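A quick aside before the break. I want you to see a complete sequence-to-structure record at least once, exactly as it would be stored in a machine-readable document. Don't worry about memorizing anything.
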Amino acid sequence: MSSQNNASINITHFIIGGFDTLSRPTAVGVAILIMYLLAVLANMINIMFIISDKRLHKPMYLLICNLAVVDIMYTSSCNPTMIGVLLAGVNTVSYVECLIQMCVFALGTLMESFVLAFMALDRFIAIIYPFQYHSYLTNTRVLILTFIVWFIAWCFVFYMPATVVPLPHCSSRLRYTFCDFPAVLRTTCVDPEKYFNEAAIIMFFILFFTFVFICLSYCGILLYVKLLSNNEKKKMGSTLVSHLICVIVHYCPAFVRIIFTRFGVVLTLEERQGLVIGAVLGPCLVNPFVYCLRTKEIKQKLFKIFKKFNTSE
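That is the input. The structure line, written in tokens, reads:
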């Protein structure tokens, strides 16, 4: 341990080196910028629609609004940094900013899982128990449960700064494209495998149990749908498929990146970078269109706006 401390350095800034070998940084940067702006815009529109229309102040829309907030936070945790590196050449980040980015990114990953599970529960109760739905899930209960979910997620995230901050650092260069937990941990003077395994165990239980909960909820809905008429089956089937797309877009990259790499799946640096970028931008782009544009009230509101815009021309 003394040798590690002797070799350690005082870190005030980190250098982001994840894009050093990229052949076309400007093209990648522009693509990320466009997708990031689309994701933020789509989620902001959904939030504004729900907040401005009192008819949408219902449990399901509160959950959709919460998901939009999570998506904006999640995609904004890392994309501005990557865009800055690729398009402006700003490849340094302060130590404190790096820790904040690490925590916010991890919080976004956890909250995506928790919110998708919460929304699956909402749909399960709405479809299986339609008459009791509004007594089971009131606005107040949804807000309280949402607060609890955020608090639990923050408690899990606290593990990361509590692990990294006390460790001595031997490098200021980040191997990856922004400040996530593995990137920061690899700059320390210790063997990171122990900490990677601990984090993977925590994430495995969170991802596994939320994913199983979502699957069981949708299986229960599918069993119930069998009793409905053909028209209702088609409507429910279409809704379930679109929701499952959101689940797959979030969980598949997360399982590969966080869990499977602990069990022998080897990714090149470029594959990992691409997987992380897709894992962030994918859900944040898909969620607002699936959960909101497929919702009758929001679609009607959009059609009215477009109709008004066309008539004014």
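Two observations worth writing down. Confidence is low (pLDDT under 50) at residues 1-6. The chain has 13 helices and three strands. We'll return to this after the break.
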